[in-house]
Design goal:
By secondary structure, the protein is an alpha+beta fold. It is 44% helix and 17% strand. The protein folds into 2 domains: 104 residues, Conserved hypothetical protein from pyrococcus furiosus pfu- 392566-001, ParB domain (Alpha-Beta Complex), CATH 3.90.1530.10; 98 residues, no CATH class. It has a 4-stranded mixed beta sheet. A two-stranded antiparallel sheet has the order 1-2. The chain is globular, with a radius of gyration of 21 Å. The termini are far apart.
Length: 218
Amino acid sequence: MTDDSPKARTLANGIEVWCSFDKLVPVGELKPNPRNPNTHPQRQIELLAKNIRYFGWRQTITVSNLTGLIVSGHGRLMAAKHLGVEVVPVDYQDFASENDELAVLVADNRLAELSTVDLNELEKIASEWKAIDFDTILAGFEPADIEGLLNPGGNDDDEDDDDRHDKELDKSDVTVAVGLYRFRITQEEFIAWCDRVKQDAGFDKESVLNEIRSRLGL
């Protein structure tokens, strides 16, 4: 009887490595880019470390052949140090200039910030996880986060007509949460509205949040 279950490419200090990589490199040899503008709070590192321990390495740490500095994966390196591992999977890439290298470094977080979340779909996923008692910490969600997502108004056993109406809205609609306020609009309208706000506010995260609060009268 053969075992057809997926096999990791290798092990790095006992942690499965699933991603493609050039070689396993000692943690102490890796050099963070001193100009990296992305910060990593301790709680994020703890969650990332748990994710790597459970799922294995699904992404490498990318290093530039031009400067020898990390281009993406600063948080993963910090998580590796938190786990106490000695080697990590590294992918070496070429860049035509240091500006190209920095652009990729900044874009690693910046492009993700420009995305929007379909809270309808996220709520469905969260409901499925809750039903099977899945450890949502592995996805970066504390139990309180999941509870707040699924039950934003607290425990309310009496579902009113508005609640029932919300559940019947078209699947193309999204729920937008701003503090304690929740709004339902179409995805197309929401994306267009976000683009207008960002253009007016100048794309800085705090400026965008202040602009949203101002427009909503919060």
